[in-house]
Structure formats: structure tokens, C-alpha cells
Amino acid sequence: MCLGVPGKVISVGEDLHQLATVDVCGVSLRVNIALVCEDSPQALIGQWVLVHVGFAMSLLDEQEALEMLAALEQLRAVGLERPMPEGKDALH
Amino acid sequence: MRYIDEFRDPALTEALLQRIAQLMLLMPERQQLPLQIMEVCGGHTHAIFKFGLDRLLPDNLEFIHGPGCPVCVLPMGRIDSCLEIAAHPEVIFCTYGDAMRVRGRHGSLLDARRQGADIRVVYSPLDALQLAADNPQREVVFFGLGFETTMPASALTLQQARRRSLTNFSLFCQHITLIPTLRSLLQQPDVRIDGFLAPGHVSMVIGNAPYGFIAENYHKPLVVTGFEPLDILQGLLMLLEQLHAGRSAVENQYRRIVPEQGNRLAQQALAEVFCLKASSEWRGLGEIAHSGVQLTPGYAEFDAERRFHPQAQQVADDPRSRCGEVLTGRCKPDACPLFGKQCTPSNAFGALMVSSEGACAAYYQYRRETA
Hints:
Chain A: One of its GO terms (biological process) is protein maturation. Chain A: Belongs to the HupF/HypC family. The complex is a heterodimer. By secondary structure, chain A is of the alpha+beta class. Chain A has a single domain (5-78), classed as Roll (SH3 type barrels). Chain A contains 1 helix and 5 strands; from the N terminus they run E-E-E-E-E-H. A 5-stranded antiparallel sheet of chain A has the order 3-2-1-4-5, with no helix packed on it. Chain B has 3 domains: 32-62 and 178-263, Rossmann fold, CATH 3.40.50; 76-176 and 292-308, Rossmann fold; 322-364, no CATH class. Chain B contains 16 helices and 13 strands. In chain B, strands 2-1-7-8-9 form a 5-stranded parallel sheet. A 4-stranded parallel sheet of chain B has the order 4-3-5-6, with helices on both faces. The mean pLDDT of chain B is 93. At the A-B interface, strand 1, strand 4, strand 5 and helix 1 of A face helix 1, helix 6, helix 7, helix 9 and helix 12 of B.
């Protein structure tokens, strides 16, 4: 029950107690943003957040996401150059 | 789905699996004694089974399914207290759907609803608060269940209840906290765990520092990990790299969501609304000191236990069930004599079978055909 889903903030109210609209996989959710709003609510528009039980719980750091994927891509490229030891199946 | 599909990429999954297999070959001593990695969170357990990750990994690498499913460790006595509160005719009792099917001594919330109690499943505690605003003549009680992931939602909802002067709203608090339970697990002599995949969404609230003692005092590596297949495999790879190098540190695989310090605003809300209880009961594990929270004196007026005075309940688990041993990695679900017989998802005996995030329910759904 700790799962959350990423969504993009579409619109916000005047203050942080008003619910924002967040697009989650094409569905509009009404979401409380008080836990991710350090500045003005308007600054959140366009940002990705992790939504859990009606609250935006964390700002999604897109730079970190892209760096992680790039590191994995690098791992794949190295793996393609370096075959597994003979007689050893990759999976078992 | 952005930031989900990318972390399910098959080619990158294959690359990670290869690298994990290579690293395991570099640890030949582990051929005899398999590595035991505990995934603490029920969300991880579910993802591991759903994506079949355990079957793609070398045989000498085992997942131990930890205590991080709040429904699984929910004592039956607390369900009985929920039923007692929900039986008041003026009460609208609201809960996350996860808790509906957990049985107490006198049945489940689902059973009570069938018998006429006004029990409603809500997505968010804010929905329960709205019910209180819409029904001023009724008493709305929200069943606050879960770890630090769901705790801030309860805290902010109570802050709003105060701001909106909604005096017909209260919280039945069953919020629990993971760190004391991990400590108690590590202190048990016959539990053998080599490393931890730590729960990503608890960590986005509490940050990474609270896990420091696991690396420093118990010399076990720990990696805060996300919930997609690439997250889990990369978290595992980071653990194996630490084990291979003889290191133990707290590392963060899930940096896109988990800041080093956690969520400061959430921590402030928790400190205002909740304080530690001396002791809390965990199903299968027993009483653990400082492992649960209650409302602070400033919010005591919103405490459903003060408002409705349910009787203190102590319900022992059936001695045949092995829930506690499964929770601590001493026993696989299908080694329990009740598994798949008296205890199935449709007629769950133990809580690990009730929740889809429980190890037994995952085994039943994904492994029964090969058992």
C-alpha cells in the first residue's frame, strides 16, 4: 500500500491548501500539493510529482531519472562488448 | 507511461541480469550458502513476483520478504476494535481498501459492511474528511494505517480538520514505523540477512540517514530502491557490488524520488501530529518498543480511541500458522502447513495471505502452479 504513481501538475489553485490537478497516465486527479510546495503553487505547474493517496509526496527529479537510465545504457554497452565466461549461462 | 515504461526496458533488464550473474560468479563462497537479500517493502515483494524477477536471478541469490506490508502485520485485535467503532450507529467508518478483508476474531470489515455497518472504502483520507463536511450529523472515523508513506497524508488531513473546524472527524491510528522493527530483526540471533533493499517511498519521507545504524553497527549494506523492474535489479546490483567489495553503506538507487534528507515538510507535519508510543503490536512479530505512533496531546481531540473507547484486544495467532517465521525469512510461504489449504486469498487465515503485497498471497498467485 506504499505504492505511488508519477504524474504531471497541470493546474494549481491560489494557495497550497487548494487541490491541484495532476495528469496521471491521462487521468486527471485532484491532488493536495502542500508537501511539495516550498514556494508558490504556480511554480509547480509542469513539474512531475509522485502521487500517493491523494497527496503529491515528492518532486520527481528528471535529471536523476535520465542519469540513471544513461548509466544503465552504459552498462548494456559494456556488456555487449564483454561476453559471459564460457559455459556460463547469463541467467543461471 | 513516462518514468514507468523506461524502467521496464527489456534490453536494460537483460544487461543488469548479466552483470548480476557475473558478480555472483565472483563470489564462489556463495555457491554453498546462498545470499539472502531482504526486500523490506511489500511493494517490492509484489513487484518481484509480478515481474518474475526471482526466477531470472542465479539460484544462490534468495529474496527474503520482509515486514514492510502494514496490512500483513496488522494485529487481529485492531480489526476487532475497528468493528467495535464501526458498530456505533452514528459512525461512518472509512478505510483504505487494503484493510477490508483482514479478519479479526469477529470477522472482517467487509463482513461487518454486509451486516449493515456503514463502512466505506476511500482512496485518500481527504475523501473521508469531505464525508465529515458533507455529513455534519454523523461521526466520520478514518482508519489510519501504514508506515511513513501514508502517515503524512493522515497528519495533513488532521491539520485540515482543525483548520476547517470539523469536529465530527477522528482518526483510528494504526500507523507504524519501520526502523525499530528492522533493528529488532537484526538483533535476533538466527536471522541471517546479507543486505537490504530499503523501501523507496518510506524513504522519500524519512530520508536515508535513519538507516545508518544498519551499515555502521550491523555491517550490512542497504540500498534505497524504487519499484520498477530496473529499479529492483539495479538496487540488487548495488548491494552485490558492496558485498563483493566487502563494504557496507547506505546507498540510494531511487534518487529521482528520494532526496537525501527526505521530505522536510512531511517530517514537520509528522512531528506536529504524531508522537511515538511506548510499544506497538505487530502481527507475527509481537510487541516492538517505539514501533508505532499516537496522536500528540495537541491533536488528542481527533483520537477515535478517546472518542469511542474500544476495548483493548489481544488476539493470539493460531499456533499452526507460521506467519512470523515467513516474515523473518526463517520459512518459505509454501512450507507453512496451512498454505493453500485452510489459508488462501479468498479465505485468508493469516494476514500475509490477505494483502496482495503479502509474501503468501504472492506465492499463491504466482508460484502455486510450480509448488
